[in-house]
Recover the amino acids of this structure.
């Protein structure tokens, strides 16, 4: 063996200094004593050792490495998800059943009227997503309770013959979803007439009753992720603008809302208020009424010496938005998981300097902050230390109507109609949101190939689709809200799955930096051992050949 | 902006204006620890003060501070942080709400914040609860390099990760528009990988350029602010005095110059809908200020209607209660009827494992392991005896 000593002369610039490099064969003249030849058994054992190390590395090491470093990606039904998002999986149609209670009219005439009214309705309505379908009422209207509409009847029309001299008139029943129509007896259509004044009248009335709902639902469809061919046509910009303003004002749907009532005073008094009594008296009925759609939790607080964000005596329009002293007032939104709606009664002597539009003489005392809550300015009460329940009546009633607005309740129609409309709007909204979440998740899965997708995301997606199918099938009915709610919650949970985070991107330098120190010390002896073995085997073979 | 809105509120055009965005959020992130990085925390706190001054409430500001300079023993002015050697404004004043502090400031938490992939236990005040109508101002500062920003000397966020996080936000409709601002060495590389729409990005320095500090306070003993942030703040303090300011993003970006910042500040408009022109014409208050489109009520003559509403809702609630009872009774009857003909067979309760997935597999693995051990033992004793 000869040692080849070299003093990296290549990297140095060529110089005249040649004394550094020694002649390569300087020491090779001395005869070396060789070790005794290896025993056959030792060689064989070494071969086995090298082979077994390699076997362990390949058959245990590699699979473990592969298993622990691959990203688990559950299979998601991507096409189905995209179909939902594009609106292909579900035609968002709201078939609203309208019952026609004709009273004492004979069957034949009733059928005739029904047919003509339906015809008139179809002519009026060009939006296929929201379809009003008439049917004859089975039972008298009084027995239908407002909230429990198993029959899925959205509205009952109660016909009653009225004065012959007057034209037809109608009014909405205050407690029940009933439209009372008084008609002059002579306006009933004859058997073969192609049209009828009464039918047209009823159709127009229905159309106007449901106009707001139709606008909102077309707006929801318009702004959703579904593809243009599934969208309603002919929605005017004006409608979009008004509805969009209303929708941005209202809170995002949540099953539970947390209501916080706060009394802030600018001085030491008043320090107590009859809020419980006032809430029971003026707010509770409305909350009870909303129960099928939302749950509410309530808490109250009192804070003295609370300085508002604006000190001026008369508050201008721009002062109102900075009136809330977000820094100092304890309006922490972090109670529970439900979104908080804030209602603030502020006792001080500030007034609003913006004349109201309806009656310019007076000024208003309250204002609403979209998606947040509302504020009511109250003059200091006569009884200095205590705010009585009567004093709170006006504030709480104001808050009640604000709450309805913040929840997105439509503004026209009788209360039961507004409620059932709210339920339908919310289920459409949730349905579209869940569908668009599915679409987002599908696109994300394709766009980020290195993100892990745990199996519960796939579960969530399957559940979402399952409930979406139910919700879609029962749109307009009582069950759809419940299903849409579950679908939306599941879709959100799947999208926001906690373990789908992590650093997704590792630069190649990082990989080298991680693997080299690990694999270097292991890899070098492994590879060298293998090479030596191969060399030795070749040697043996050539010797054997020579011997033969 | 408020005045602007107020005047427009009376105009019929309001809805178009209000339709743009309905809430403003700010995510302010400092990423360096230790006393000699005082300036980075001062940068963040100055931005915090600015957005708060322009009306964004604490609940909509996410502030990430990795270290507590105010209480650092080396601070000659305990309890305060200054970003200027004149020490006029204490940035650590009375009202400061730090959402993520110390070791909570990690890349993972930052990405979780943006994508809202957080656990149930995370309070709402630490979450970015934005929607498709929210404008977000994202400000980051620290030590960085080519396409990365170091977090706490321990880890780093890469530009592709940041871009993916923004993309996930966009997919889930978590923002309307984003202004991304970063002050670090080679900052412009951090936004080079972004690909989601509606983002305006700006950074302090190009590839291979350092971002420099502005000046040091000799009593504090370290540099107190970075140049890029300093000149941003100078512009915001002098030109955007309140939310009614009409200064645009373009005005701010035009104020950058190499002479002032000592590096080439970069801007990126191409992701924004409408390109450079639209992006440049956005008001600064669209991102630094807060919109609150309050609605004032009419006067107090609504009592009558409300009384009616109350009595009405009472009736309706009672009716629905009745209906529910009826339903319950019906269900009860049905279940009674159903229960009678087919009495449930008594079941003996067996201890149930907490989870029943792979129960048998687990049993099998356990049994095999035991058997293997026994076999080994047996084999060992066999060899022992045979020797």
């Amino acid at each position: 063996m000869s040692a080849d000593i070299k003093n990296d002369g290549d990297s140095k610039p060529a110089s005249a200094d040649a004394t550094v490099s020694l002649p390569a064969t300087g020491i090779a003249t001395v005869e070396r004593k060789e070790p005794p030849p290896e025993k056959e058994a030792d060689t064989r054992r070494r071969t086995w050792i090298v082979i077994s190390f390699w076997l362990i590395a390949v058959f245990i090491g590699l699979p473990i490495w592969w298993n622990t470093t691959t990203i688990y990606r559950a299979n998601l039904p991507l096409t189905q998800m995209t179909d939902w998002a594009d609106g292909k999986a579900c035609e968002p149609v709201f078939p609203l059943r309208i019952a026609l209670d004709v009273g004492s009219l004979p069957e034949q005439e009733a059928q005739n009227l029904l047919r003509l009214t339906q015809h008139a309705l179809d002519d009026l309505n060009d939006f296929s997503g929201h379809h009003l379908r008439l049917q004859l009422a089975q039972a008298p209207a009084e027995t239908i309770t407002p909230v429990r509409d198993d029959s899925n009847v959205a509205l009952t029309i109660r016909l009653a013959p009225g004065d012959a001299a007057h034209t037809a008139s109608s009014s909405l029943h205050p407690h029940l979803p009933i439209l009372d129509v008084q008609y002059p007896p002579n306006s009933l259509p004859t058997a073969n007439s192609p049209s009828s004044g009464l039918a047209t009248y009823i159709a127009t009335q229905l159309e106007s009753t449901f106009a707001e709902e139709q606008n909102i639902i077309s707006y929801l469809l318009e702004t959703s992720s579904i593809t243009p061919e599934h969208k309603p046509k002919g929605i005017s910009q004006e409608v979009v603008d008004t509805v969009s303003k209303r929708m941005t004002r209202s809170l995002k749907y949540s099953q539970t809302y947390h209501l916080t009532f706060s009394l802030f005073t600018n001085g030491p008094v008043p320090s107590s208020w009859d809020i419980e009594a006032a809430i029971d008296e003026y707010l509770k009925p409305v909350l009870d009424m909303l129960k099928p759609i939302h749950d509410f939790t309530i808490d109250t607080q009192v804070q003295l010496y609370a300085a508002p964000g604006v000190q001026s005596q008369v508050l201008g329009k721009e002062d109102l938005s900075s009136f809330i002293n977000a820094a100092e007032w304890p309006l922490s939104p972090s109670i529970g998981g439900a979104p908080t709606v804030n209602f603030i009664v502020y006792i001080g002597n500030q007034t609003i300097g913006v004349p109201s539009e309806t009656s310019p003489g007076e000024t208003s005392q309250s204002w609403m902050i979209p998606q947040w809550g509302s504020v009511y300015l109250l003059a200091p009460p006569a009884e200095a230390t205590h705010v009585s329940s009567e004093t709170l009546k006006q504030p709480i009633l104001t808050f009640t109507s604000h709450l309805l607005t913040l929840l997105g309740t439509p503004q026209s129609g009788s209360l039961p109609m507004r409620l059932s409309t709210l339920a339908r709007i919310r289920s459409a909204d949730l349905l579209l949101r869940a569908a668009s979440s599915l679409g987002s998740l599908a696109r994300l899965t394709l766009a980020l190939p290195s993100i892990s997708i745990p199996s519960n995301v796939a579960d969530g997606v399957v559940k979402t689709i399952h409930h979406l199918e139910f919700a879609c099938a029962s749109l307009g009915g009582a069950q759809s809200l419940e299903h849409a709610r579950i679908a939306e919650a599941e879709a959100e949970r799947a999208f926001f799955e906690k373990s789908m985070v992590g650093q997704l991107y590792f630069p190649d330098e990082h990989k080298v930096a991680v693997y080299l120190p690990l694999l270097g010390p292991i890899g070098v002896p492994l590879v060298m051992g293998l090479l030596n073995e191969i060399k030795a085997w070749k040697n043996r073979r050539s010797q054997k050949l020579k011997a033969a | 902006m408020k005045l602007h809105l107020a005047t427009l509120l009376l105009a019929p055009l309001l809805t178009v204006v209000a339709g743009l965005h309905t809430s403003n959020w700010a995510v302010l992130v400092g990423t360096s620890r230790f006393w000699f990085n005082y300036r980075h925390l001062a940068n963040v706190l100055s931005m915090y003060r600015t957005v708060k001054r322009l009306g964004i409430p604490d609940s909509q500001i996410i502030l990430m501070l990795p270290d507590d300079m105010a209480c650092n023993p080396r601070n000659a002015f305990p309890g305060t942080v200054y970003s200027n050697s004149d020490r006029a404004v204490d940035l650590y004043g009375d009202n400061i709400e730090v959402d993520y502090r110390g070791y909570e400031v990690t890349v993972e938490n930052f990405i979780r914040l943006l994508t809202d992939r957080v656990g149930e236990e995370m309070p709402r005040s630490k979450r970015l609860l934005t929607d498709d109508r929210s404008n977000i101002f994202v400000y980051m500062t620290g030590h960085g390099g080519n396409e990365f920003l170091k977090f706490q000397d321990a880890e780093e966020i890469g530009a592709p990760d940041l871009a993916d996080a923004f993309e996930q936000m966009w997919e889930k409709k978590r923002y309307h528009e984003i202004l991304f601002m970063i002050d670090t060495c080679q900052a412009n590389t951090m936004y080079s990988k972004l690909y989601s729409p509606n983002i305006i990005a700006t950074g302090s320095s190009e590839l291979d350029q350092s971002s420099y500090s502005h000046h040091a306070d000799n009593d504090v003993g370290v540099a107190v602010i970075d140049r890029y942030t300093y000149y941003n703040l100078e512009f915001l303090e002098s030109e955007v005095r309140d939310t009614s300011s009409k200064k645009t993003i373009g005005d701010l970006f035009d104020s950058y110059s190499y002479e002032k910042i000592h590096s080439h500040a970069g801007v990126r408009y191409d992701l924004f809908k409408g390109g450079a022109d639209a992006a440049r014409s956005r008001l600064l208050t669209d991102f630094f200020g807060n919109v609150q489109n309050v609605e004032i009520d009419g006067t107090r003559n609504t009592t009558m209607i409300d009384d009616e509403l109350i009595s009405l809702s009472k009736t309706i609630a009672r009716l629905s209660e009745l209906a529910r009872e009826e339903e319950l009774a019906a269900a009860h009857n049905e279940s009674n009827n159903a229960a009678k003909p087919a009495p449930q067979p008594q079941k003996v309760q067996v201890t149930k494992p907490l989870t029943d997935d792979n129960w048998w597999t687990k049993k099998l693995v356990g049994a095999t392991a035991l058997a293997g051990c026994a076999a080994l033992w047996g084999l060992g004793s066999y060899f022992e005896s045979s020797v």
The mean pLDDT of chain B is 81. Chain B is about 40% helix and 15% strand.
